[in-house]
Amino acid sequence: MKIRLSFSALLPILFFLLGSLQLHAQAPNTSAPSTDTTKFLIVKNDGNEYVGQILSDDGREVLIETKSLGKIYIPKSDIKSMRPINYNEDIAKGEVSTAGVFTTRYQFTTNCFPIKKGENYAMLNLYGPEVHFAVHKDFSVGVMSTWIGSPIALALKYTRGTANPKINYGVGTLIGSSGYLNQGRGFGGLHWGMITYGDRRNNATLSVGYSYFNPGMSNTDFGQTIYTPGVYTATNGIYPNIPIDGYYYSSSQSNYKAPIIGLAGQAKVGKKASFIYDCMFIMANNSYKSVTGNQQITPQYDVNGMLSQVEVYDYQETITTGTTRQNVLVLMPGMRFQRSESKAFQISLAGVITDGMSFPLPMASWFYKF
Q1: I need a surface site. Which of 65, 117, 219, 357 has the fewest CB within 10 A?
Q2: Residue 8 CA to chain centroid, in angstroms?
Q3: Which CB contacts under 8 angstroms, 24+ apart, belong to 356-365?
């Protein structure tokens, strides 16, 4: 009887101990972190990016654990794209790289990927330098010039994304002046719209634009004298002193306009190399105006061959206008070598083909992030 009572008294204790052991054994499974340590790059619609491990995804929002901010809930409606991190391609010097600021342009043209704030860059070319700054997540400002500081141009670019992360669109403009050349009288511009398909590493961009250029100068023939019309008698064969009525200037002016179609792209061919292709078809029109002055002066001689008189006719001016057309194809295939996150070198074996001639135009460019 005593043994039964002792056993009965021990039963609740045994059940309690077994339950505690079971709970203790199950606790590590419920609180242990997931064995999946894959990190994801999440890009929001506003351009902000987060890198971390996805803890949960209920279809409406994603719980991500980042290194710097800890756990963050991100609504699915705010996410533009989400992909796993590729450590061989995305990690450089221990930091995540989303292809860098240099992928926002080709050789001459640009694409629809924005320059991110804090990722300003400079590019040094054989013909001159240029710098570009991000002033907004979708808007950048740049300055382009030659090594003599003229001409100089202001570059503006605005881009936007779509519901499809691989389709982006944008507009851009270049507004230029001849600078101190020709006292700044020359001016021009290039305005275009563009659409890009792909990501920052592999993409293609179609652009359509319109350019214009007025050199602000004319080819002028100075010092032409206008004489007073009439008949003037020579004395002893000496040319008469004909009164001067003024001066005229034969001149010509040009104004260039050109629709432009561009096709460009880039493709990653290695961990640090990309193939760059840039092409522009320019349909140039040159509207010209030519002003030519003419005054006929006829000398008359006697039977002995001596100058007897000079007849001066009225001054006449002829204005000629017209338009010439010239198609120009610029091909710029090249390679870009990304030496680090802040430096890259690009070489392009460019060439120009016109209706009457063609010639090579090799280019080399050095990129620097700052």
Answers
A1: 357
A2: 86
A3: 361/330, 363/107, 363/125, 363/126, 363/127, 363/332, 363/334, 364/125, 364/126, 365/107, 365/123, 365/124, 365/125, 365/126
Cis ω before 229 (30° cut-off from 0): no
pLDDT at residue 10 greater than cutoff 70: no
pLDDT band, residue 270 (cuts 50/70/90): confident
In the block, residue with structure tokens 């090594």:
147
The residue ranking higher by pLDDT, 185 or 258, is 258
Confidence class for position 4, pLDDT limits 50, 70, 90: very low
Please choose, from the candidates 166, 311, 152, the residue with its C-alpha nearest in 3D space to the C-alpha of residue 242.
311
Per domain, the residue ranges of the chain are 34-98, 101-369
Torsion of CA 265, 206, 212, 156, to 10 degrees: -70
Is the separation of the CB atoms in 247 and 225 below 8 Å? yes
Question: Per the structure block, which two tokens stand in for 194?
Answer: 């563009």
Residue reference for tokens 């620097």: 368
Tell me the β-bridge partners of 248: 224
| pLDDT score of 66 | 86
CA–CA separation, 105 vs 271, rounded Å?
Answer: 19
- Max CA separation in the chain (angstroms): 173
Q: Are 248 and 317 in contact (CB under 8 A)?
A: yes
**How do residues 174-186 score in pLDDT, each as one tens digit?**
999 999 888 888 9
Residue 96 pLDDT: 47
Q: Please identify which residue in the block is written with the tokens 């694409």.
A: 111
- Side-chain half-sphere of 184: how many Cα atoms within 13 Å? 3
CATH number for the 34-98 domain, one of 2.30.30.100, 3.40.50.1110, 3.40.50.10490, 2.120.10.30?
Answer: 2.30.30.100
